Amino acid sequence: MGGIDISTTIKDVARHTGLSISTISKYLNGGNVLPDNRRNIEAAIHELGFKVNEIARGLKTSRTMTVGVLIPSLENIFFTSIVSNIENVLLNNRYGVILCDYRQDKRLEIEKLNFLVDKMVDGIVMVPQGVSNEHIMPVVKAGIPLVFIDRVIKGIDCDAVLADNAEASFKAVEQLIIRGHRRIGIICGPREIFTTEERLRGYIAAFEHYGLMVDRDLIKFGNYQVDGGHRLLLELLDSDSAPTAVFVTNYEMTLGAIMAVNERNIRIPRDLSLIGFDNLEMARIVKPSLSIVAQPIQQIGETAARILLDRIKNGPGSPQVHRLKADVLINESLSYISREES
Amino acid sequence: MGGIDISTTIKDVARHTGLSISTISKYLNGGNVLPDNRRNIEAAIHELGFKVNEIARGLKTSRTMTVGVLIPSLENIFFTSIVSNIENVLLNNRYGVILCDYRQDKRLEIEKLNFLVDKMVDGIVMVPQGVSNEHIMPVVKAGIPLVFIDRVIKGIDCDAVLADNAEASFKAVEQLIIRGHRRIGIICGPREIFTTEERLRGYIAAFEHYGLMVDRDLIKFGNYQVDGGHRLLLELLDSDSAPTAVFVTNYEMTLGAIMAVNERNIRIPRDLSLIGFDNLEMARIVKPSLSIVAQPIQQIGETAARILLDRIKNGPGSPQVHRLKADVLINESLSYISREES
DNA sequence: TTGTAGGCGTTATCAA
DNA sequence: TTGATAACGCCTACAA
C-alpha cells in the first residue's frame, strides 16, 4: 500500500560489482578501495541510479541530516529572510530544514520545540520567546546543538547570533539628536520581547549620552505589526507634545508608520523626520528615501547556520554570543532642526 | 562521538513490563492487549518517557512523517502565509515540514525538488515554475504524492490548489468598468509565470465582455516585487495615454504602487482608482482604504495539506484541480468617472 | 493474546 | 584492501 519505492540498495551495487556490501559501504564513506574496484563501483552506482538511504543510515548513525528552525511567525519577513539564508547554507551541506512557526504563542513554541526534538533533528536554530531553562532541557539532554537568533534569554547559556540592537538604536537616535531633534518618538515592539528592551535601551542611552531628558510620553509600545506602527504613529502625532522625529523599530511597523504619514499628508522630512527598520529595498523606493537601521540579515542567517554545523560536527563548546553590527543608513528622511523650534 | 541519546526503546519498555517487544509494538500500533498489560505498558511508557523512534519505524514502513514544501521565495508573504497554514495542519497530524525555497531559479527548483525526493519525504507541496514532466518523474517514480499550489503546469497531471485568478481578475476589472473607467492599466507579473497569464486573461475577458477595446500600452509586465510595482505605476502615469485606474496583481507590487502614488501626490481615488492584491490588513490601514483581490490564503494552504494527507493515506487517485474563489473587496479607492472624462 | 524470529538498508568490528 | 557478521529500533508474519 505504501510507496512504490523501486530504490536500489547497497546490496544491488554489491551484486552488480561482485564486491561485498561492506566494501561498497566503505567506498561510500570515503574509505580506501582499489582503483579498479572504485571505477567499478562508480559505474554501477551511476548505472543503477543508486542513492544512499538516509533513513537507514540515520538509524545507524543517529543522524537525520535535518535541522529544525523555529520562528515566531512566517508572516514576518525579517524572520523568513533569515530562514532563507539558513536554508541555503544548510542545503549546501546536505541538511534539510524542518520549519515551524509558533504564531507568537508560548505554548506552541514549547510544543513545536519538543516536536523537533522528537523528530531527532541534528540541530536547532530558534528565535526564543517564552522558553525557559526547563523547556530547553529535553534539547540539551538529547544532545542537540541549539542556536538562538535575534534574541537571547536570560539564564539560558546557549550559542546565539543577533544584532547589536542597543548600539544600532543608539546610533540611529544619535543621528536625530545631532540634527537638533529633542522630541524624538520611538515606536517599540511588545514590552516582553528582548529586542524591544534592547532597542529602547539604545534610545535612552543616546539621550543620556547627550545629557538630554527622556520624555516617557514619546515611548510607545506596539506589536511589531503593520497596524501597530500605523496606530502608534498617529498617537504620537496627536499627542500634546508631538515629536519632531520618530524612530520605528521593526519593518512591519515602519510600513504602518509610512502609511500613517501619507494618510495625514505629513511631509517628510519637513514636518517629521523618520528612521525605520530593516528592508533596504523599501527604504530606497519610498520618496523621500527612508533612513533605516539595517540588520545584517544574511550574515545572521549564515552565521547561525555555520555555528550550528560546527557544533554538530565538533560537539559542544563554551557557548558564544555573536553580536553583529547593524548599519544606520542615512537617507533623505532626516531634517536639521533649529533649537528654538524644538 | 554523536548525540548522547539516552532515549529509551521498545526493548526497555518490554523489560520494564515483563512483556515481549512485539506486544509493546502491537500496543503502540493500536492492537489489542489485555487490559492489565495495557495499563502496565502505559505506566512504563510514561515512567520511562518512551517515544517511538520515527527513524527506525521509517526504515520499516518507509515513511518519514515529513512533507516537503517548495516555494519560489521565502521573502514573498503570500507564499509564506500559505506555508504557515500548511505547516499548521500537517503538524497536527504529526508531520514535519521540510521547507525549501528556490529563489526563483529554475535550476534550484529542480535541484531542491530532487533533494526532497532523496530525503524521502512522504509528500510534496510545491509552487511550480520551471518544472516539466521529466523533472516530476523521479517524484512519481518514488511514489511520492505531489500537490501544486498557486499554479499548474500544462502537461503535468497533478493535484493542484489555486485561486480562480481569471475570474477574480475579471471581477476586479469589472468593478472599474462599471464605474466608467475605460483606460485601465494592469501591472502584471513576469510573462512566463502562470498566474500572470491568468490574471491578464481575466482583465482582457472583462474588456471583451463589455465590448471594449484593450489598449496594449496599459499592460505592464513586472517582477512581482516591490520595486517593480513602483516603477511600473510611474510608467503608467507618465505614459501618453495615462490610465484613470490601475489594477496591480500581487501584494509586493501593490506596496510599490502605493509608494509611487504617495510620491507623486496622486490623490486616490480622485486622480486614480486603484485595486491591489492580497493582504487584507494593509488594505484596511491605507487611507483611503484600498480595494483588493483577496485570495483565500488560509483555505489554499489547508486544502493543499488535506489533499496531500489524503493521498499519503489512501494512495493516488485521479488528479483534481481545486479552484478556490478569490474575493474582490471594494473599498474607498475606486471612483466613478463620467464617460467624457475617460 | 502473546512471543519468536527475520528483516528494513546501513554502518562498524574484526578476521582473513 | 576486503568480507562476513552483528547491530541500530522497529514492524510483522507466524507459531504458540
Q: Taking Cα atoms only, what radius of gyration of chain A do you get, to the nearest Å?
A: 26 Å
Order of strands across the biggest sheet of chain A?
2-1-3-4-5-11
Uncertain regions spanning at least 5 consecutive residues of chain A = none
Number of helices of chain A: 13
Question: How far is it from the N-terminal to the C-terminal residue of chain A, by CA?
Answer: 76 Å
Shape of chain A: elongated
Description:
Two copies of one chain form a homodimer. Chain A is elongated, with a radius of gyration of 26 Å. With 342 residues, chain A is of the alpha/beta class. Chain A has helices at 10-17, 21-28, 35-48, 54-61, 77-92, 106-118, 133-141, 165-178, 194-209, 226-238, 251-263, 280-285, 297-314; strands spanning 66-71, 96-101, 123-126, 146-149, 159-163, 184-188, 219-221, 245-248, 273-277, 291-294, 321-324, 327-329. Chain A starts with 9 loop residues before the first helix and ends in a 13-residue tail after the last strand. In chain A, the strands form two sheets. A six-stranded parallel beta sheet of chain A has the order 2-1-3-4-5-11, sandwiched between helices. In chain A, strands 7-6-8-9-10-12 form a six-stranded mixed beta sheet, sandwiched between helices. Chain A contains 13 helices and twelve strands. In chain A, helix 1 crosses helix 2 (21-28) and helix 10 crosses helix 11 (251-263). At the A-B interface, helix 4, helix 5, strand 2, helix 6 and helix 10 of A face helix 4, helix 5, strand 2, helix 6 and helix 10 of B. Chain A binds a DNA duplex (16 and 16 nucleotides) through helix 2 and helix 4.
